[in-house]
Amino acid sequence: MKLQWSLILGLFFALVTAVFAVMNVDPVLVNFGFDVVSIPLILIILGCALIGGVVVGSYGIFRQYKLQKQIKGLNAELSKLRDTGSSLDSISAPDDTFSSEGSSQL
Fold it and tell me: How far apart are CA 15 and CA 17, in angstroms?
């Protein structure tokens, strides 16, 4: 369901951007620091939206790669623990961490 809402919001944003861009077709001067060029505003708006999409997409791919690497490492650690015969149930906290004397001092 989350994917569907993301798709709907993405399409809505694309529609609003396209309508806004079509309403602004007048040429504007763009200073690149070394040259001044007259470009239609529609190209600047669509270009900025495209650059924003590439940046967000790159961040998403980087984050997914990082999480996949973490999952792979955790799976390797889990299989190593299973091979040594360790049980996850035998791992427990020390019993004396929350004594009645310590809780009264809080």
Answer: 5
Asked whether the CA dihedral 14, 20, 21, 23 is positive or negative, the reply is: positive
Which residue(s) pair with 40 in the sheet? 27
pTM here is 0.55
The number of angstroms, rounded, from the C-alpha of 45 to the middle of its chain's C-alpha atoms is 23
Residue of 53, 63, 16, 46 lying closest to 8 (CA atoms): 16
Can you read off the two tokens belonging to residue 7?
A: 């798709």
- Region label for 85, one of left (φ > 0), alpha (ψ between -120 and 50) or beta (otherwise): left
Residue partners of 88: CB distance under 8 A and separation at least 6 = 81
Residue whose pair of structure tokens reads 């007048």 in the numeric block: 26
Is the pLDDT reported for residue 62 higher than 70?
yes
3-state secondary structure (DSSP) of residue 20: helix
Q: How far apart are CA 12 and CA 4, in angstroms?
A: 12
